[in-house]
Design brief:
By secondary structure, the chain is of the alpha/beta class. It folds into three domains: about 60 residues; about 120 residues, Alpha-Beta Complex (Aspartate Aminotransferase, domain 1); about 250 residues, Type I PLP-dependent aspartate aminotransferase-like (Major domain) (Aspartate Aminotransferase, domain 2). The strands form five sheets. The protein has a seven-stranded mixed beta sheet with strand order 5-13-12-11-10-6-9, with helices on both faces. Strands 2-14-15-18-17 form a five-stranded mixed beta sheet. The structure holds pyridoxal-5'-phosphate (PLP).
Length: about 450
């Protein structure tokens, strides 16, 4: 045995040492012991003598890293506002407060306070959704994929669903519309071609076996050139004549038009219903800017059938989602409040100048800390399959140095910073960072790079 090895303290003596006592108060003894054992084993392997203070510091740092929660906050400086991998929509303050309000105690989740007896969890967001979309009734489930399965199961199980070949899309994360539709127990009847579908294609596919017509919004791509498409407004008379519902999957789901901000082409839920859809579904955490949820609005008779479907129970939302969604919808009652208080909408509609001014402050603070940084023009996007071809002029801070090295160091921080590399440069695009996080982002970058 070498001298260096002999100098290493025993695991037991370290665990019991005065210096590690505070760690033992905060972390499980087994974790502390395991980390000490692993750290000593590494040193023994290397044959390195260990300075006791360095050893204790290493152990403390490793225990803290090992104890970080698996799910933790990151800074999204990618410029993609609705980043599915980074948790989509950050919630409005009112939504966060609403969650906190019900999370720690009991609530009237399924209790009718007026009657003093059992109620339904489905009532809570209904009046807001009716007001905001003009629908007769609504139901909220786990996500939009679930909403599509539920709607087809309730309205077309064992029957045929007519859908255009141009709408048999893959949304991402192996979610393919045809697979989902089949799982609902309906038989898919594809009509038209990839680029062109005509009203007559739908008419000829109608039969006594038809259970529904499905319209799927082409969220994450566009087709251009020799194309033809049939809108819900045109389909509506055909559907009525055969007494068949139209199920319209909007995907993103706008509650207010963003035309004024140069973002047009995504239908609002109100427009989609007014066009004649029987039920319209959308995600809670895409453009709507709320919690993960699948919102289904539409005709009362159809929603009643959805509520009775066994899938409704399997896909039901919890009280935290209902709290957050209710608070988010409440903000939409005042559209100007929605644009400023719902983080997703505020980030998407912020002017380029405002984003650039924040970048100026960030770049200056980084330079003051000795980090080479300058403001550059960037191109941001909405993300999550909304407005897929629309670039939003934005601004970012480009960091000097090896982009790959910077990317790794920022990603390894306590609150990881996810940016993007463009033309070999590492960029922090502030369009996707809520302005309230700017100061914390600045310190995190300095800590990781200085
Ligand atoms: C995103 C999307 C979905 C899936 O929504 P989730 O809420 O993520 O389940 C379904 N349909 C369309 C058209 C979409 O864009």
């Amino acid at each position: 045995m070498t001298d260096a090895r002999r100098q290493l303290p025993a695991v037991g003596s370290l665990v019991e040492s005065v210096e590690l006592r505070p760690l033992l108060e905060r972390y499980p003894r087994t974790l502390v012991t395991d980390v000490i054992r692993a750290t000593l084993a590494e040193l023994r392997e290397k044959g390195e003598p260990a300075d006791r203070d360095v050893l204790l510091e290493t152990v403390a740092a490793r225990i803290e890293t090992a104890s970080l929660p698996s799910l933790r906050p990151v800074f999204n400086a990618t410029g993609i506002v609705l980043h599915t991998n980074l948790g989509r929509a950050p919630l409005a303050t009112a939504a966060i407060e609403a969650i906190a309000e019900v999370a720690g105690g009991y609530s009237n989740l399924e209790y009718d306070l007026e009657a003093g007896r059992r109620g339904s969890r489905y009532v809570h967001c209904v009046s807001l959704l009716r007001e905001l979309t003009g629908a007769e009734d609504a139901i909220v489930v786990n996500n939009c994929a679930a909403a599509l399965v539920l709607a087809l199961s309730a309205l077309a199980r064992g029957r045929e669903v007519i859908v255009s070949r141009g709408e048999l899309v893959e949304i991402g994360g192996s979610f393919r519309v045809p697979d989902i539709m089949t799982r609902s127990g309906a038989t898919l009847v594809e009509v038209g071609t990839t680029n062109r579908t005509h009203l007559d294609d739908y008419v000829r596919a109608m039969s006594p076996r038809t259970g529904a017509i499905a319209k799927i919004h082409r969220s994450n791509f566009t087709i251009e050139g020799f194309v033809a498409d049939v809108g819900v407004r045109q389909l509506s008379p055909v559907a009525s004549e055969h007494d068949v519902p139209i199920v319209h999957d909007l995907g993103s789901g706008l509650l207010l038009s963003l035309d004024a901000f140069g973002l047009s082409g995504e239908p609002t839920a109100r427009d989609a219903l007014a066009a004649g859809a029987t039920v319209v579904m959308m995600s809670g955490d895409k453009l709507l800017g709320g919690p993960q949820a699948g919102i289904i609005v539409g005709k009362a008779h159809a929603i009643a059938r959805l509520k009775q479907d066994p899938f409704a129970r399997a896909m039901r939302v919890d009280k935290l989602t209902i709290a957050a969604l209710g608070a988010t919808l409440g903000i939409y009652r005042q559209p100007e409040r929605a644009l400023s208080e719902i983080p997703t909408l505020a980030m998407i509609t912020a002017t380029e100048d405002v984003v650039r001014a924040r970048c100026d402050i960030l770049a200056r603070a980084l330079r003051d800390a000795g980090i080479g940084a300058r403001v550059v023009g960037t191109s941001a996007s909405v993300g999550a399959g909304a407005f897929p071809t629309r670039d939003i002029p934005s601004a970012g801070v480009a960091l000097d140095g090896n982009a790959t090295v910077i990317e790794e160091r920022l990603r390894a921080g306590r609150t990881p910073i996810i940016g993007r590399i463009s033309d070999g440069q590492f960029l922090l695009d502030l369009r996707s960072v809520p302005p309230a996080h700017d100061a914390r982002l600045t310190s995190a970058v300095v800590r990781a790079l200085a």
